[in-house]
Amino acid sequence: MSYCYDYPRPAVTTDVVVFTIREETLQLLLIKRAAAPYQGCWALPGGFVEPDESLEQAAARELEEETGVAGVYLEQLYTYGAPDRDPRDRIISVAYYALVPSDRLQLRAASDAEDVRWFGFDALPALAFDHDHIARMAHERLAAKLDYSTIALQFMPERFTLGELQEVYETILRAPQDKRNFRKRILALEAIEATGERRRNGAHRPAMLYRVRDPQRVAIIK
């Protein structure tokens, strides 16, 4: 039976902040909008939630449709509902953030995206809507979560060295980490395991390669 609501119903969208680390910098995935509002401006991937899908399903679908990125770790960030955040209507956005390993960077612009590109987080262009605020909050959440979870492992390729993992922490936190203490702490988590293989980087002696024990899981450690 249909029901007639006496009150206006806001539309709901999802926006996704996608991070990766490449060229030793934290980078953010942006799309160039092909339609109004903000046509031609850079924005976070995202779009309207369909009636028959969950919020996370909508976020994953829009991300894949607009950028070609799929099968990545998604975590809900925050809900943005300022009355004037979207010039089209009263639109509430549920934001997610996603982490993509540096070896999974095959992008394609599709759907209502004219272009898709990685930008250094410290050199972002002007963003549509309130997406600059969303991106900054996502970075703050990511940096804070390094201290009490294994979320940084979501950035790692199938095999990596402890030095490469330390670089991920230093890039996100924008601060050096003591090598000895870092390695002791990471190995104590038992979230990674040695592969038995080694890799030589330049003139340095070969470094042990590790892999994540459970790539699909982010463990809380405090």
Layout: helices, strands, pairs:
Elements: E1 11-22, E2 25-33, E3 42-43, E4 46-48, H1 55-67, E5 73-80, E6 91-99, E7 113-120, H2 131-145, H3 162-173, H4 179-188, E8 192-199, E9 207-212
Could you explain the architecture of this structure?
It is elongated, with a radius of gyration of 19 Å. The longest helix has 15 residues, at 131-145. The chain folds into two domains: 11-145, Nucleoside Triphosphate Pyrophosphohydrolase (Alpha-Beta Complex), CATH 3.90.79; 151-212, Arc Repressor Mutant, subunit A (Orthogonal Bundle). Strands 1, 2, 3, 4, 5, 6 and 7 form a seven-stranded mixed beta sheet that branches. Strands 8-9 form a two-stranded antiparallel ribbon. 23% of the residues lie in helices and 29% in strands. A hairpin with a 7-residue loop joins β8 and β9 (207-212). The chain has helices at 55-67, 131-145, 162-173, 179-188; strands at residues 11-22, 25-33, 42-43, 46-48, 73-80, 91-99, 113-120, 192-199, 207-212. It is of the alpha+beta class and 222 residues long. The mean pLDDT is 92. It is built from four helices and nine strands.
